[in-house]
Amino acid sequence: MDTSTAKKPTLLLSRRIPEPGFSLVREEFTVIGGEEDRPMGRAELLRGVEGVDVLLCLLTEPVDGAVMDASGGSLRVISNMAVGYDNIDVQAATERGILVTNTPGVLTDATADLAWALILSVARRVVEGDHLVRQGRFGRWSPFLLLGHAVAGATLGIVGMGRIGQAVARRSLGWDMRVLYTRKSGPLAQEQVPAGACWEYRDELDGLLSEADIVSLHVPLDSTTRHLMGSRELGLMRPGSYLVNTSRGPVVDEDALVQSLQSGHLGGAGLDVYEAEPGLAAGLTDLENVVLLPHLGSATVETRGMMSELAVRNASAAVRGEPVNVVNPEVLSRMMSA
Ligand code: DGY
User: Fold this and answer.
1) 115 C-alpha to center of ligand 1: Å?
2) Which ligand 1 atom lies nearest to the CA of residue 58?
3) Are 91 and 69 a contacting pair, CB within 8 Å?
4) Whole-structure pTM value
């Protein structure tokens, strides 16, 4: 087929995306929107989606049944430029026969690196130290100044041993850590565990929480993981232990976390995500023993480039009838049997 004259499918781009996806999407689609680096408002989204084949969106845009219906039945694909897709009502998409795709794999290492940045920052009080120096409060070296806790040899609890959880666990080999993990689909196969690693599966979250010195969260947000870490679970964590969250904010009851940190039960927390992002629970910023980042898990030039490209490729593959990275495969089976 002569692609220069063939009519391109239409795509609503909800906001500006990095290169190479930004250029690629224009080669493959007739693009509406996507010029500005700001979330698309609901009214704009409802207007913009009318008559398009594809919606390419990001986690800043909630996409529900009303948005899908505003297309007037034309919408066939929602391509999310993120591995998490809790901003999309997937059930509503499935009911309407709309494919939803995400961008797994390409952000695994960047997110695992950031989880480690938080682990080390909170356990070794890196940000507190930086503040002290900047504020001119660094007098003389002291054997008691900003003592943290050893990471080497500690026990790391990974809640959700998927791609990112495993990448975090692999990095811990350099710190000679024992790793405890939970995993929805049961223990890893022998060949998935690196030689020499001490990774132990726990079928109960409670068991992991009561043994780990550092707990790192790597579960997707859904109805089973919302407030997975509530006051009961935080209370089960070892006194002085650390919580790190690079998954989704609502996995943690943030008010309960603040209470646990204020009471001195937890040693500290490293957070990249928040329950009511970008809002923060009252009291969080008053705590010294927390490191707070603005959702930077995948924020490297390399990774954001790969995410933008994959989101466009997912959209093209789906309209060509060769979908990949589909999160609602039920739509595919329905298409096959139709
Ligand atoms: C994701 O992909 O789900 C991250 O949170 C944003 O990059």
Assistant:
1) 13
2) 6
3) no
4) 0.96
